[in-house]
Design goal:
8 strands; 9% helix; single chain; elongated; Factor Xa Inhibitor; eight-stranded antiparallel sheet
């Protein structure tokens, strides 16, 4: 299997329409996704000294980090609006092989920075709320 292009790993936000249309949060230079899970330990005296975990239990979450150049797109404005309001919205992560993951996320952090005579850039941190599922 050939390596997949990082440029094809896209973060998208819904436009709020029904049916929803997902728009790319433009200007992304880096994107990262982490799938996290807490364990439920069920070790007992018959475990023979080995830890036993309960399959399917615990808390699962997805964290998304992105950084890029601010272009002033409608998708970026929607992300900023959700960051200021503390509201959830539907997002999609799309990969080069066509796989997509969708779920509701909260903007946990949105940072803007810029240099004199340089472009304005931003970093973004999203945290999932509810299931993140293949689309």
């Amino acid at each position: 299997m050939p390596a997949q292009s990082g440029a094809a790993f896209l973060l998208k936000i819904t436009d709020g329409a029904s049916p929803p249309v997902y728009q790319t949060v433009a200007g992304l230079r880096t994107t990262q996704m982490s799938i996290n899970g807490d364990t439920v330990v069920i070790t007992h005296k018959d475990s023979g000294g080995w830890r036993d975990l309960l399959s399917g239990a615990g808390t699962r979450s997805v964290s998304v980090s992105a950084a890029g150049i601010f272009l002033g797109s409608a998708a970026e404005s929607a992300v900023r609006g959700h960051a200021l309001a503390g509201t959830l919205d539907d997002y999609e992560l799309s990969f080069e092989d066509g796989e997509r993951l969708r779920g509701r996320f909260l903007v946990q952090r949105l940072d803007y920075a810029g240099d004199f005579n340089g472009e304005r850039n931003y970093t973004l941190q999203l945290e999932s709320s509810g299931p993140v599922v293949p689309a």
